[in-house]
Amino acid sequence: MPIGGGEAELVGRYMWSILGTWLDNDTFVFGEGETFGLFTGSVEALDVNTGTTTTIVGNIPGDPGGVVFDNQGNLYVGLGAAQDSSRTGEIRRFDSSVVDAALAGQGFVDFDDGELIAQVLNAGDLAFSSNGNLFVSGANFATGDAGYIAEVDVDTGQIVRKFDPADGDPNDGDFTFYQLSFTRQRCTLGALDLFSFFNADPSVIYEEAHVCN
Fold first, then answer.
1. 67-89 pLDDT per residue, tens
2. How far is the CA of 37 from the CAs of 28, 74, 79, 159, in angstroms?
3. Rounded to two decimals, what is the model's pTM?
4. Is residue 9 part of a domain?
5. Strand order in the sheet with 178-182
6. pLDDT tens column, 87-130
């Protein structure tokens, strides 16, 4: 889209693009899946200049959820809706060398070959803070695990904190699904309650939490 506004340029059409992130100024990396986990998904790298895509992670057993890079260039991919519901919420890490190899035409890696970091919610949205911890949102429809944002230590896989922007109680069973966003410094977290749009009296929650202390 032109910086001054106007009609955007179409660069591609995909089955079901869920979430994505920029690898660099020319490469957008996103998850592609179909129909709530019934089929096999992938993570694709789109060259926005040519409109061509390269598969980085393939044979995802369902729909990918969040897709994010850490500051070392390692790729994290969530399993948003799994064919086997007991696996929903898995978060796997792929070394930066895997990404480089795929972009160099050496083929993709299977989702199950990634390192399992944690299993949280449905790994629906992933974002890193400046202290290197991973923030996870979403809602697991199969288990009812919902109503909070998790801060995960990727070295241990442990949830170190939970946030509930709605009422401050992450353990009260609220069935909400948050979308995450950090400020540029990645120390202040914003959360949008996506389920609020389906309520008879909708409300949008935007919570600022300083997470780097």
1. 999 999 999 999 998 999 999 99
2. 23, 25, 9, 25
3. 0.86
4. no
5. 178-182, 188-193, 209-210
6. 999 999 999 999 999 999 999 999 999 999 999 999 988 999 88
Tokens 């795929």 found at: 102
Structure confidence at residue 153 as a pLDDT band (50, 70, 90) = very high
Reply yes or no on whether the pLDDT at 60 is more than 70.
Answer: yes
Does 2 fall in a domain? no
Is 144 inside any structural domain? yes
The answer to whether 60 and 108 have CB atoms below 8 angstroms apart is no
Q: What is the CATH number of the domain that holds 164?
A: 2.120.10.30
- 58's enclosing H/E stretch is strand 53-60
As given in the structure block, the two tokens for residue 156 are: 């241990």
Q: Is the dihedral of CA 24, 65, 75, 57 positive or negative?
A: negative
Domain that holds residue 98: 17-210
Which range is most confident: 9-18, 32-41, 75-84? 75-84
How far apart CA 143 and CA 4 sit, in angstroms, is: 46
> Could you give the number of structural domains in the chain?
1
Does a structural domain hold residue 7? Answer: no
Cα distances (Å, whole numbers) of residue 201 to 132, 146, 205: 37, 21, 13
